[in-house]
Amino acid sequence: MMKKHILKLFVFVALFSLVLPAPSEALRAEAAVRGNLISNASLEGAASGMPMDWAKGKWGVNDAAFTYPVAGYNSDAAIKIQIQEYRTGDAKWFFSDVEVEPLMPYTFSDYWMSEVRTIVTLRYTKLDGSYSYVDLAKLPASRTWQKFEKTFTTPADVAKLTVFHMLNRPG
Q1: What is the pLDDT, as a whole number, of residue 76?
Q2: What's the Cα-to-Cα distance from 163 to each of 26, 28, 33, 95, 123, rounded to whole Å?
């Protein structure tokens, strides 16, 4: 019998970004031109009840429900995951892969609120098309909006990446 738990996660709201920090003049100029690499980072563009350039995913034994739009941090366009029955796996919303440069620093940030701990994970698409995953952080439960921000350096064999801010546990 599966445990019944209600889990709520509000993530990836209006101020969601992946940017290239600028440690040199040349990179500062490139960062100013490129800005946020995430298409529809504010989640305001939508089609057929989904935020454009976003996907939802889950695996394992759980009944994840995905909701869009919901009220978010300073926005009416946020996304929500709710799990009422959980045994294994995870659930997440994620943006379309963005092209990145190998061995370069990038900064990811989002605002989130959750009744349970969540995990922020990078999914790299390598040059050969395979995937690798790196956890950026395990964030504690918070009933108020919190900002998460972290700078990381991409590996040598990377072509693209996305970020999962996922729910993978009962509350």
Answers
A1: 87
A2: 26, 23, 22, 7, 6
Integer-rounded Cα Rg, in Å, for the chain is: 16
Is the separation of the CB atoms in 93 and 64 below 8 Å?
A: no
pLDDT in tens, 56-87: 999 999 999 999 999 888 888 889 998 888 99
Whole-model pTM above 0.90? Answer: no
Beta bridge partners of 7: 83
Return phi, psi of residue 31, to 5°.
Answer: -65, -40
The residue among 131, 136, 130, 127 whose CA lies nearest residue 163 is 136
Residue whose token pair is 């989640």: 43
24-45 pLDDT tens trace: 555 455 555 568 899 988 888 9
**Contact criterion met (CB below 8 Å) for 154 and 124:** yes
- Residue 167 above 50 pLDDT? yes
CB–CB of 43/66 below 8 Å? Answer: no
Token pair for residue 111? 């605002």
What does the alpha-carbon distance between residue 17 and residue 138 come to, in Å, rounded to a whole number?
18
